[in-house]
Amino acid sequence: MPIRQLSVSGVRNLAPLELTAHPSVNFIYGDNGSGKSSLLEAIALLSTGKSFRSNQIRQLINHDADRLELSCVLEDPQAADGDKELYSLRLKNGDVLFRLNGSVLTSQAEVATNLPVQVIEPNTFRLLVGSPEDRRQFLDWGVFHVEPGFIEEWRIFKKVLKQRNSVLKQKEESWLDAWDSGFVEASEKIHQYRIQYLEQFVPCFEETLQALDPNIAVRLHYYPGWERDSRLEEVLERQRERDLQLGYTQAGPHRAELRIRVDKLPAADVLSRGQQKTVVAALKLTQGILFKQHCGTAPIYLVDDLASELDSGHRLALCKLLEDLKCQVFITSIEKQQLMDSWTPQDYKVFHVERGEIREEPITDPSA
């Protein structure tokens, strides 16, 4: 569901804005510090509740404001009136409010379901160099969106994990047998969801990476969170004494990881920054492809600073894949011409950002 209209207030240096977006491609250009990245950041925040530039939400709120307000109207062919309206309010004290068509939503996950986004930005290579948690969250984004039952099973697992850890902290070993049974059952369900997703993901990723750069040979390996050749209940039994000493559970799907390697080495240790960004772009494009196969529509792509770490050939390849996906894209660059040279869609809009003010530019017909 593409964004039709976007409203932003109280975000960094952006002036309050009302923007009518194009359902296909939205080019956004402006000098460094002008606010173009903040616009993409606002869309990502509305969807995920997180910023791709900062871990502190308070830093996103304009220093002269006490709140941050975001809303968007989504085109929804299945809705009676053809539209959905999402609204998010965040106060500096940490209070949040989400609404869909005026009705209060109880979680960020409900917002994400209605507004799925993928972000490709200058620091996107952190998916390779960052923590296992980063890659685990990346994997679970895909599972969450294509497997409807995953989120409820994940909530059950988190509750059981919390209870088991509580027993471990209190050194109540006699209770562990009872909790281990439920923990193993919940863990296996999470594991199976991930395996089923990866069976589709891996071949699609390899094909997508080839389209972006046939000279990069990367392989994905899934570590479930315990030794692959052992049953989880056996691992828990072997690690019980150590778990009791530490006060937490060492093995399980909360320790899973998507390992990304070149031969037997971590890809981050082998590839250049540009190659790393190409690999991450392939990972995120693959998620969009599978999302569309399962859900019928593609997620929205936010591509910040297209030229960063990518040469012209890779920029063209990336934009070609996004065009083939037929998704809505918000894409930024310092120079307008750099955007136009990388991508020549038939339908698009151009926005210029200057000192926090965003202005839509008229499109000139080159054949006129």
Summarize the structure.
By secondary structure, the protein is of the alpha/beta class. It is built from twelve helices and 15 strands.
- Please give the alpha-carbon distance between the first and last residues: 33 Å
Q: Give the biggest sheet.
A: 6 strands, antiparallel
Unreliable runs, pLDDT <50, ≥5 residues? none
Give the strand order, joined by hyphens, for the main sheet.
2-1-4-5-6-7
User: What radius of gyration results from the CA coordinates?
Assistant: 22 Å
Order of helices and strands: EEEHEEEEHEHHHHEHHEEHHEHEHEE
Q: Label the overall shape.
A: globular
- Write the CATH architecture name of one domain: 3-Layer(aba) Sandwich
CATH superfamily of one domain: P-loop containing nucleotide triphosphate hydrolases
Q: Overall mean pLDDT score?
A: 88
Number of strands: 15
Number of DSSP helical runs: 12
Helix content: 40-55%
In the CATH scheme, what's the topology name of one domain? Answer: Rossmann fold
The level 1 CATH classification of one domain is Alpha Beta
Strand content: 15-25%
Based on helices, strands and strand pairing, what is the structural class?
A: alpha/beta
